[in-house]
Design brief:
CATH topology: Rossmann fold
Strand content: 15-25%
Structural class: alpha/beta
Radius of gyration: 17 Å
CATH superfamily: Formyl transferase, N-terminal domain
Largest sheet: 7 strands, mixed
Order of helices and strands: EHEHEHEHEHEEHEE
Distance between the termini: 23 Å
Number of helices: 6
Shape: globular
CATH class: Alpha Beta
Length: 208
């Protein structure tokens, strides 16, 4: 029986493509990307999903009475697909508390900084403006705060003195495209658990 994943996007879908390449095109994988939803009808990532034969849908706030109604419709659609995990892969809209509680423990996000540093939007620009020496990528569970959920995986890299934003973004994306599929793989394999004494701590079982 496959581990069923739903992916939420808003833009180009490069992290979605990394997931597709890791799982959809690998027959030995137990992970199945069963659906992709976007907050925007013009998101290029939708075409990536369709090319991979994955069912897609659009859930725009403008097409619902309010964000809560949009979130409820999106949640129903994900439940209809029996998803085991929801992955935010460049989903650039806020999800309300009812949605987050509905998928508690089954909702992860990838963020371009070493959380808790530089949460929210423009994380890379925030880091460069601050002058940090190290940047990185975090995959974390989603809670009702802004990028405050427990960390699943992180990977850091040293920042050069000359800091072209485009070059830093390229390095960040390279790590995202490796780290996010790895996190999904670990969760699907039952290797990820929360510490019963401190729910902020996430254990990764030894895979060797």
């Amino acid at each position: 029986m496959s581990f069923r994943v739903g992916v939420l996007i808003s833009g180009r879908g490069t992290n979605l493509q990394a997931l597709v390449e890791r799982f959809t095109r690998e027959e030995a994988s137990d992970v199945e990307i069963v659906c992709v939803a976007s907050s925007r009808a013009d998101a290029a990532g939708l075409e990536r999903a369709r090319d991979a034969g994955i069912e897609t849908a659009v859930f725009s706030k403008d097409e619902h009475a309010d964000r809560e109604a949009r979130d409820a419709a999106l949640g129903d659609w994900l439940d209809d697909h029996d998803v085991d995990l929801v992955v935010l892969a460049g989903f650039m809209e806020i999800l309300g508390g009812p949605f987050i509680r509905r998928f508690a423990g089954r909702l992860i996000n990838v963020h371009p900084s070493l959380l808790p540093a530089f949460p929210g939007v423009r994380a890379i620009e925030q880091a460069l403006e601050y002058g940090v020496k190290v940047l990185g990528v975090t995959v974390h569970y989603v809670d009702e705060g802004v990028d405050t959920g427990p960390v699943v995986l992180q990977e850091a890299f040293d920042l050069p003195y000359a800091r072209a934003v485009e070059e830093i973004e390229r390095r960040v994306h390279e790590i995202e495209h490796r780290l996010l599929p790895r996190a999904v793989e670990l969760i699907a394999g039952g290797a990820v658990s929360r510490d019963e004494h401190n729910p902020r701590l996430v254990r990764i079982a030894d895979q060797t």
